[in-house]
Write a structure and sequence with these properties.
With 276 residues, the chain is α/β, with parallel strands linked by helices. It folds into two domains: 137 residues, Rossmann fold (3-Layer(aba) Sandwich); 127 residues, Rossmann fold (3-Layer(aba) Sandwich). The chain is built from nine helices and eleven strands. The chain has an eleven-stranded mixed sheet, with helices on both faces. Helix 3 runs parallel beside helix 4.
Length: 276
């Protein structure tokens, strides 16, 4: 894989670098490190800075590079524009496999700066988005031993299943999670795609898509999807994988966004896969 990571000097940025290091170790990925230099309050198109102009970013870029030992790293510095727009634009133009970001910390300036960028990337990126939880860089991590997968049997879920299958350590375990939600009481909301009509059948279908030799543990959860997934991943989960949900704006407002809730509250890293 080729991953895109923003360098910004915040705690959330350091969390993203630690998650990128772990992903690179697991998948032999390369990394494109990007820093955006503030260019004033007026809106302007972003541009790649020449070497002399980019020197202001050199210390932070070098520090980030050192946190990724043994990883093939490319670095770029841009001026102007929105950091979120730059990340999403680059990921599309260069067909990158994923963007790695840090979830906003609960307090201070980092909550505002990193939070707005992270939410914009999560909502706007067309590639996979990996999210490191707050404080993830405070301790080193060894591998993706236990990967949890939220599964619905939809095309989006099958993309997520393949990603979970590819990312888990060879001797690791996948927890296959199917959530049976109560029905949505608003008829104009359309079909309740979040609630499988037969959760046990969905579990069995999901199990059938893994190789027999893989260690897969099925779990049926009952209740609202977002808090149930949050609780299921409270301890011992190295990565939670969710498929991108293609709701329109009305359904998104009515049903809420599972990935957005988990993004704000989960204590483990999150992967929201690209739409199929």
């Amino acid at each position: 894989m080729r991953l895109l990571v923003a360098v910004d000097g915040t705690a959330a940025g350091r969390d993203a670098l630690e998650l990128a290091r772990l992903l690179c170790a697991a998948t032999s990925s390369s990394v494109l490190l990007v820093q955006v230099v503030y260019a004033g309050p007026l809106p302007m198109e972003f541009a790649l800075l020449a070497e002399e102009e980019a020197r202001v970013a050199a210390p932070l870029i070098e520090q980030a590079r050192q946190s990724l030992p043994g990883v093939e790293v490319e670095t770029r510095v841009y001026g102007g524009g929105s950091p979120a727009a730059i990340l999403t634009s680059l990921s599309e133009e260069e067909e990158l496999d994923g963007i790695v970001i840090g979830a906003p910390h609960r307090h201070g300036l980092d909550r505002l700066v990193s939070g707005s960028v992270a939410v914009s990337v999560l909502n706007g990126a067309k590639c996979d988005v990996f999210v490191a939880p707050p404080g993830y860089a405070d301790a080193p991590h060894e591998g993706l031993k236990t990967v949890a997968l939220g599964y619905l049997g939809t095309p989006e879920s099958k993309v997520a299943l393949r990603r979970a299958r590819d990312l888990v350590d060879p001797d690791g375990e996948v927890k296959l999670l199917v959530v049976a939600e109560p029905p949505v009481p608003l008829s104009f909301a359309g079909p309740n795609v979040a609630n499988p009509t037969d959760p046990e059948a969905v579990l069995q279908e999901g199990l059938s898509l893994f190789p027999r030799e893989m260690n897969v543990e099925p779990h049926r959860l009952n209740g609202a999807a977002a808090p149930e997934l949050e609780k299921a991943c409270a301890d011992g989960i190295d990565l939670l994988v969710l498929g991108s949900r293609g709701y329109g704006p009305v359904k998104r407002a009515l049903l809420g966004s599972v990935s957005s809730h988990v993004f704000r509250h989960a204590t483990c890293p999150l992967l929201v896969t690209r739409r199929p």
